[in-house]
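Q: Got a minute? One more chain.
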Amino acid sequence: MLACAPYKELKLICIRIYWVITMKQKKLVVVGLGYVGLPVAVKFAEAGFDVVGIDIIPEKVEMINKGESPIKGKEPKLDELLKSVVSSGTLKATTSYEPIREADYVLIVVQTPFNMLSKEPYYQALRSAVRSVGQNLKRGALVIIESTVAPGTMNKIVIPILEAESGLKAGKEFLLATAPERVMPGKLLWNLVNLDRVVGGINEESTQAAIELYKHIVKGELYPTDALTAEIVKTTENAYRDVQIAFANEIALLCENVGADVYQVRELVNKSPYRNMHLPGAGVGGHCLPKDSWLLAFGARGANSPRLIALAREINDSMPRHLSDLCVEALKEAGVGIYGAKVTVLGIAYLENSDDTRNSPAFTLIKALEVYGAHPIVHDPFVEEANGIVIEKSLDNAIRDSDCVVLVTAHDDYHNVDLDHLKKLMRTPVIVDGRKVFDKKECYAKGFVFRGIGR
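A: Always. Here it is, folded:
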């Protein structure tokens, strides 16, 4: 049967057999041990690979080598799995790039932020990581970029740097693919294992080798494609979600104008077939959504400039400022001016039950409140410090003598707040809810002035 197969198909079958037989005997390096890289490293270590994780932060490396996760918040099974693979010796962390010299697989998982002023990707971390990998890359290795990048980045940046630094030819003397991550805080391991994934190589051998590698940790479908398509797919899926959230936010603002409840509107809209209106809220945060739309637009720039994508970003970016306006409005109703008011901000992480503060809408809200002359006090059960902002760890202390409580992040802790206790601690009973955590009718019944996004 194999003898009758076309040459191209036979070649791929032979590659697959080779990678399956030899894979677990080889070494794997993960560059970047953040919210994506650390879960990837522990899963491959659990699968039996000899894994070395590289990170530039010595404190993080030290924690990981002790079996302690630098990621806080509720991450099911991550702490236990990290301790297990570190104690078994299948995962080690270091700040040195030297382990790449013996690595057969190198996964690059560094952040790729976007410069909003220049409207260009901020690729310093990516360039530095790729350069260091190239300087240590051995012949025959497979390099995979998991970071989300603008379309064309593999061809225009990654390949030239790797070839220049290594002296090797991509696709011939080393293999190269991109497999953009699809994880999110709170579901890091679950998403990594169970979600479908797109894998795009610079040639068929690279694609097939990457797919065979990921089969050891991914239960979802692995869809092969080319590198450019994989780049576009990742940035497009996040741009699509960003547009959906912007639509929900715009309907929320319209509901405020006419005195309706957007959450009831959303529930009834979604009763109609093929409708899936998203939740509105205080704003969009995280590493991906606020910048992936711009990565897509940057990489695909040309005669047709994106209009809907840009407008969606503008709407979502405006929501935390709108939340600050609701604070002004609610305080005015309570007979208190915003200038000099103590405002308690509940949550600085961008996502509930996480410690991830990247691009959190809370930062924009805090700045807006300070511009108004208010004195914001921030509480978050999972964050100790963020961008120089001191986080009050005691919820009672954060609320005591406050004139307004404004909720940004729907941590579980805030769902259980006793309104009677809250009112006793506050100087002025005002609640502004950016995530539909508080019951509006109950707040009114307890004597609070209340405002909420879309309510």
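A: The radius of gyration is 24 Å.
Q: Perfect, thanks.
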